[in-house]
Amino acid sequence: MALSATHPDDPGRTRRASLTVLIIAAVSALGGLLFGYDTGIISAALLFITRDIPVDTFGKELVTSAIVAGALVGCLVAGPVSDRVGRRPTILIAAVIFIIGSIASATSHSATMLIAVRLLLGLAVGGTSQIIPVYIAELAPAARRGSLVLLFQLAIVVGILVSTIIGWALGGSDGSGGNWRLMFLLGTVPAAILFLGMLFLPESPRYLVLRGQSERALAILRRVRPSDAVAAEELGAVEAQPRENGSWKLLFSRRVRPALIAGTGIGMFCQITGTNATIYYAPSVLASAGFGADEALQTQLLVGVTIVVATAFGLWAVDRWGRRTLMLRFLLLAALGLVLLGGSFIGGNPTGIGRYTAVAGLIAYEIFNVGSISASIWLVGAEVFPLAIRGKGMSMVALSHWTFDLVVSLFTLTMVQALGAGYAFFVFAAINVLAWVFVLRAVPETKGRSLEEIEQRLGDGTFLAMR
């Protein structure tokens, strides 16, 4: 059902409500910046940790992967916690873990301690990937929900870029710096801002309705909607949805299955289409293409800037083109970028102009993949599940993301060694085509629809008919 438009007689209130929602989304999205920073900074820190802490190659792998292992647990725990204590308290808990984890990482004196701390940070990373998109989606108006939720994804890629810049700056241009403790400690700054900011932000009104606190929910909706009439109408739509037991059994029921397939499927394809594989291993690919260390670093920085720009475009496009439409328009172009990249390696490492063809293919792939399916993963997951199990449903989306992130991280280089770089990229190109088919068949268009309409369409069997 469509909610009323803005109140024509009070443009001042409309602007205040719009600004309030933007502030709520921007502050909570800082969790995404921490997500990106803490997962990205380890690549620079590992270059210098061995100066102070004895750690072998296997230990470095454990330190790097510990945050992913923690995220697998964190995303599962955060769903039930957020359904029990609320969205806002769950984000506050994650912020505290980020602060403690950043300080503990900076003061670690052994590899064992650092691995344990990175596991702890992983709990916060996984938790924020589950709860922050849900929190923003439940507060945002339907017309702006896409761009506001995508602030979280934009913050993630900005965090990755910031970690690259800080790692380079604190490492020194000749590698003589290497203040790895400060690299970790700087993570406390956005974590503290997130914690303090969340103290002043409201709870999700939909969660409050779920807990029988409709008066509090209406008061919050009046702050973030352009008129009392719009707020009351939205509250009525939320209250009209059947109150169900938010059990895991409901999540895996036949009725909810289309949403579960759509959300977790995007979570899986977001990883196996090669997004993080190219980010993780781009320097190795560039080195094999004949680039020197400085050129490889500069191109890696270009990749970092590219994914930020691509995500910013996705933020604009999801509420204008639509989530499904954006993915259908861009995924095949991403596949073509990988074909161009892979083709540069056929017959041996690229030389001459082939080196720049490889870079062009890499950049094109990042633009079209990151700007579409990577931009949509947290958004679609936060939209498609019924209110009673939204937290648990988003946990499964995040679990899919982190599980396949781990798989891709472990097996990408093995695949490159077995097939060669060119054919490995052809495999990722084919998977992008499969992702396009999946979106065409299994993902509805949720642009401009209220969360209650999406839930109603899921209940009456017309979920996949939304186009």
TrEMBL record:
Pfam families in UniProt: Sugar_tr
Extract the SUPFAM superfamilies matched here.
MFS general substrate transporter (SSF103473)
Tell me the ranges covered by the Major facilitator superfamily (MFS) profile domain, including all copies.
24-447
Q: So where does this one cross the membrane?
A: 21-50, 62-79, 91-109, 115-136, 148-170, 182-201, 259-281, 301-318, 330-347, 367-389, 396-416, 422-443
Q: Kindly state which keywords UniProt assigns to this record, in alphabetical order.
A: Membrane, Transmembrane, Transmembrane helix, Transport
Kindly indicate whether the keyword Transcription belongs to this entry. Answer: no
Q: Which compartments does it reside in?
A: Membrane
Q: What is its main location?
A: membrane
Q: Name the family the entry cites.
A: Belongs to the major facilitator superfamily. Sugar transporter (TC 2.A.1.1) family.
Q: Which NCBIfam families match?
A: SP
Entry protein name:
Sugar porter family MFS transporter
